[in-house]
Design goal:
- The chain is α/β, with parallel strands linked by helices.
- It is 32% helix and 17% strand.
- The protein has a seven-stranded mixed β-sheet with strand order 5-4-16-15-14-6-7, with helices on both faces. It has a six-stranded mixed beta barrel with strand order 21-25-22-24-23-26.
- It is globular and about 70 Å long.
- The N terminus and C terminus are likely disordered.
- Iron/sulfur cluster (SF4) binds next to helix 4 and helix 10.
Length: 747
């Protein structure tokens, strides 16, 4: 076995499988339209250095990988990459080390009759995969099998997954973990601008006179973007809107510590002030927007006294915010999860977009209504995952779109579903209603990250068959699986990511995946052939070949990147922002959208969209008197910590134990002391956490970082009605002193 392990990644994929796998795989390889024999989809690079994009967050920093004998031995931050200019955060510096963890998934694992996962060959894994999913589809219909995708894979892989599942295997329902972070921004942009189009470029951090951060903590969530803010030489005013004194709020010139979820009425109130005082751009509004009169009538109800009551701010704070936007020439509005993860996230994001539109703070340097993405390829997922949107930002329900995509892919149009997929929460509900009987989860950790976790695990337990494809076999979700498919991770395969500013960057294969782990790309290829639809993907022979298909899918759309020649050209450019249509030979390094005041709706205008704000669904009361806030804990932790917990360096940079921030006055009332272990309980579950007494949280509020396994025992499964994004940010909890084991949930 060891000699086989050593050869992984060095041989052509087909011959590798010939050597290492059994008869099934060999037979599959001999079928017409096989694996593209002779192709080496992802191969190691020669000695020297290569620059590739980091695989954690959406900043998309360039990392220079140092190679010896064709393998990565170290990395450093790329000084010439236009995103990060030689900077990297701790996660980036440790990106290689976490790939060597002992719990990497190295062989397929199948649950045996005794209920234990045991290693099996790829042959057996594929037999089980096909037999069991086909049996479920035969019995319950083709739509009884669904998939959950990710924002962590290269675009080529996620497009392959979406096309394979829906066009090849007959699934209708599939969604991504980007539902948990970016769905709100997608819907907000589509409705307002006519396309999912973040308008900015990172230079806008440096060119703004005013930066407004709403529900965003870039100091730790996007540290390199924050470094770009620190390079701003225009003496910017920094306005932070957050109930908590976050690391970013500490740097703010104005910290608006609003009551939780009162951001929407605040933005409406500021819009009213701007309109009443004539601090708007009437010419731009007339030429480039629609719905202004209705919007002005609507916000007339949000007078200062109402907004003061709803937000808890002082009148002069709200007025000062409006004056700041008016006094300075360039205001940029930035938001992340504090806005997105809300029961009214879409309308809140659009309330920010409206502020940018009515003041003409869009399409100019240092401006914009700017959603910052989370995962390294959330933007790729938004356009190409083929989940709730048809490939390339198209619409499953649109016959012209289906015809176009079928033509480009050379497939029967009838293979393309005519309805959009269920969203993540609807898939989970579908399991409860026995509509979904099998789930294929790729590169995400549902049992940890999904809202109201205890219930989520009960839902997963109901499945007849759960397949998990991941780089570690120890994630909370992988340990629940019936079948685990071992995947290569970042640095072990190639492809492209799209970052927050729409920049397409290249990631490379610079090390071998361990054991029998395969790139997700090759797993999809193996499944396609095992399923019997390999012919449909004959042209999908390598990530680079798929990139050419993606270019065609983008042609003529707002995200057209047909001018991006190939991986080498993109890397030479330092990444390239879309749009980059054919003929754009030398794209500028920093470009923004809407410079001409034209948007993507048919009439060229942006829509001003609004709706009455609503109170939090779960209000604190006598039994559960505190509001729980959740968010990022440190720059050294990433999401469910499946990777960052593997680094000894990173572990030293964040607290080992789960902690809960409590206001010292509340702590005094409860008799809680610093570093005391207490129980935090909601209506859905409870956890033990160390009390961290800090005035960073207001009285009546507590904060727990999202990264720890227990956090989502507490959260409430409430969703935005338009984006279906979970509302992680606020629910009611109580604090209980003492060792009360009955409060533990037995996981
Ligand atoms: S900021 Fe994001 S992209 Fe940059 S090094 Fe850190 S994790 Fe990687």
């Amino acid at each position: 076995m060891s000699s086989m392990l050593e050869t992984l990644g060095q041989l052509p994929f087909a011959s590798l499988l010939h050597q290492r796998e059994g008869t099934l795989t060999r037979e599959l390889l001999q079928q017409p339209g096989g694996f593209g024999l002779g192709q080496v989809p992802d191969r190691l690079l020669p000695n020297g250095t290569t620059t590739m994009v980091c695989g954690y967050c959406s900043t998309g920093c360039g990392l220079k990988i140092h190679l010896k004998d064709g393998e990565a031995v170290n990395l450093s931050a790329a000084t010439s990459y236009p995103v990060n200019m030689g900077m990297a955060c701790p996660k980036g510096w440790e990106a290689l080390s976490v790939m060597d963890a002992p719990d990497r998934a190295k062989t397929p694992l199948l649950r045996n009759s005794a209920g234990r996962l045991e290693p099996v060959s790829w042959d057996v894994a594929m037999q089980q995969y096909v037999q069991r999913l086909r049996a479920i589809q035969d019995r319950h219909g083709p739509h009884s099998v669904a998939f959950i995708s990710t924002g962590q894979m290269p675009t080529e892989e996620m497009a392959f997954l979406g096309a394979l599942a829906k066009f090849g295997m007959g699934m209708r329902h599939g969604d991504g973990n980007t539902r948990q972070c970016m769905a709100t921004s997608v819907v907000a942009y589509k409705q307002a601008f006519g396309f999912d189009a973040p308008p900015y470029t990172y230079a806008d951090f440096e060119e703004s006179d005013v930066l407004v951060f709403a529900g965003a903590n870039p100091c730790i969530a996007h540290p390199i973007m924050w470094e770009r803010v620190m390079r701003n030489r225009r003496s910017p005013e920094i306005v932070v809107i957050d109930p908590r004194m976050t690391e970013t709020a500490m740097y703010a010139s104005q910290h608006l510590a609003i009551k939780p979820k009162s951001d929407q009425p605040l933005f409406y109130g500021v819009a009213k002030l701007l309109i009443d005082r004539g601090w708007i751009d009437e010419a731009f509004i007339a030429a480039s927007t629609e719905g202004f009169e209705d919007f002005a009538r609507f916000v007339a109800d949000y007078d200062l006294s109402r907004v003061v009551l709803e937000t808890g701010l002082r009148p002069e704070q709200i007025e000062r915010f409006a004056e700041t936007i008016h006094e300075r020439d360039r205001t940029s509005f930035w938001w992340t999860m504090g806005v997105n993860q809300s029961y009214q996230g879409v309308r809140t994001a659009q309330a920010l977009i409206n502020l940018a539109l009515i003041t003409n703070n869009i399409g100019r340097p240092g401006t914009g209504a700017n959603s910052i993405t989370g995962q390294c390829n959330a933007m790729g997922s938004r356009l190409f995952s083929n989940t709730t949107n048809l490939l390339g930002g198209h619409d499953f329900a649109n016959p012209q779109h289906r015809q176009k995509i079928a033509g480009i892919l050379h497939i029967d149009e009838q293979k393309i579903p005519t309805e959009n997929s269920w969203a993540y929460n609807e898939i989970m509900e579908g399991i409860l209603r026995d509509k979904i009987k099998a789930l294929w989860i790729i590169c995400t950790n549902t049992a940890h990250s999904w809202i109201n976790q205890n219930h989520a695990r009960e839902v997963l337990d109901r499945l007849d068959f759960l397949v998990v494809q991941d780089i570690y076999h120890t994630t909370e979700t992988a340990t629940m699986a019936d079948l685990v498919l071992p995947a290569a991770g970042w640095g072990e395969k190639e492809g492209t990511f799209i970052n927050s500013e729409r920049r397409i960057g290249v990631t490379r294969k610079v090390r071998k995946a361990p054991g029998q782990a395969l790139s997700d790309f090759n797993i999809f290829k193996l499944i396609a052939h095992s399923w019997g639809c390999g012919e449909m993907f004959a042209r999908w022979s390598s990530p680079a070949a798929v990139f050419e298909i993606l270019k065609e899918l983008s042609r003529g759309t707002p995200c057209d990147f047909t001018g991006a020649r190939d991986y080498s050209w993109i890397a030479q450019q330092g990444g390239v922002q879309w749009p980059c249509p054919t003929g754009m030979e030398s794209p500028a390094q920093e470009r923004r959208l809407f410079e001409d005041g034209r948007f993507f709706h048919a009439n060229g205008k942006a829509k001003l969209l609004f709706e009455e704000s609503r109170p939090m669904p779960e209000q604190p009361n006598g039994e559960f008197p505190f509001i729980l806030l959740t968010g990022r804990g440190s720059a050294s932790q990433w999401h469910t910590q499946t990777r960052t917990s593997k680094s000894a360096v990173l572990r030293k940079l964040y607290p080992e134990h789960l902690f809960v921030e409590v206001n010292p006055n509340d702590a005094r009332s409860l008799g809680v002391v610093h570093n005391e272990w207490i129980t935090v309980e909601s209506r859905r579950g409870n956890l033990r956490a160390m009390a961290l007494l800090t005035p960073a949280v207001q009285r009546g509020q507590v904060f727990i970082p999202m990264h720890y396994e227990a956090t989502n025992r507490l959260t409430d499964a409430v969703f935005d009605p338009y984006s279906k994004q979970p509302s992680y940010k606020c629910c009611a909890v109580k604090l209980v002193r003492g060792e009360n084991e009955s409060h533990h949930t037995p996981w």
